[in-house]
Amino acid sequence: MLSYSTIVLVELNRYYRSPQTFCCSTQQPNNSNNNVNNHILSHPNPPPLITMPTGELRHSSPPITANNNSSSATAAAFEDNAWVWAQIKAEARRDAESEPALASYLYSTILSHSSLERSLSFHLGNKLCSSTLLSTLLYDLFLNAFTSDPSLRSAAIADLRAARERDPACISFSHCLLNYKGFLACQAQRVAHRLWQQSRQPLALALHSRIADVFAVDIHPAARIGKGVLFDHATGVVVGETAVIGNNVSILHHVTLGGTGKVGGDRHPKIEDGVLIGAGATILGNVKIGEGAKIGAGSVVLIDVPPRTTAVGNPARLVGGKEKPSKHEDVPGESMDHTSFISEWSDYII
Description:
The chain is α/β, with parallel strands linked by helices. It folds into two domains: 22-51 and 80-217, serine acetyltransferase, domain 1 (Orthogonal Bundle); 223-350, Hexapeptide repeat proteins (UDP N-Acetylglucosamine Acyltransferase, domain 1, 3 Solenoid), CATH 2.160.10. It has helices spanning 4-16, 33-37, 71-98, 103-111, 116-128, 135-148, 150-166, 173-179, 181-197, 201-215, 332-335, 342-345; strands at residues 218-219, 224-225, 230-231, 238-239, 244-245, 250-251, 256-258, 270-271, 276-277, 282-284, 288-289, 294-295, 300-301, 310-312, 317-318. Strands 3-6-9-12-14-15 form a six-stranded mixed sheet. It has a five-stranded parallel sheet with strand order 1-4-7-10-13. The chain has a four-stranded parallel sheet with strand order 2-5-8-11. The radius of gyration is 21 Å and the shape is globular.
């Protein structure tokens, strides 16, 4: 009797092998139609080629409270979703042929599914299941959420793009989908947040517990997270109940967005759009980190940080001084520039 992996290899060869060469690049696509063509794997029944809209690498993101329901925005989101999913499947076919040991895994996780929502639901269900919390139950739970709430789908796409664009270690969209625990934890937390809002707190907390156990990422299900968010490495990230994270934010490992003690109510940080928080930073209390601000690695922040400024140290101080802090023009959450403040902060030389 043939093994399952052998059957999968036969099916992959049957449906996806082609005498044509692969043309799926590991580089981020740009706006050129020719380059878009180079990112779709050639096979006997290729998906339709989709031309990405201008500026596809950096979508302008509305505030997380915005309600953008225009037909043009919906069409653009659908086109973006379709392009990214076609790219993910192309990458999976390439990898299945080049590395047969992964063929069964890639087929069951990506290639056998008709949409990103189904693939992501299957993958999360298998990652987060336990002996008493079954993968089939979790699959249905995730799929219902992703198919019922378009904002969850668009956020997942934006997060995939964030990882692919900002992290040089991210070699492909499929790499992020399969292996980036920060991405996976964030998608699962969004579903837990949806359950929390539906007054299904016990299930939301059970899911929260599994996310913390499996990914070592502890984000309370009541916390609100925007889109285009990158949890880079993600190990040891803690985000409290009343925290808010805006759009296009990048957060490194061992970051804490915590409270200040036993006081209840609105007690956690509010992170506005485009913020970069370096590794090991701790932000405590109901403080605001302004749009485009930068928090240096290892900093302890206890007060508000103005927009487009840099806070560094323990306790954190503003680069340039409190009265006239230095301002930067770039968006650190997207540029991932961690150290440009060094010359202004210290003349210490090793």
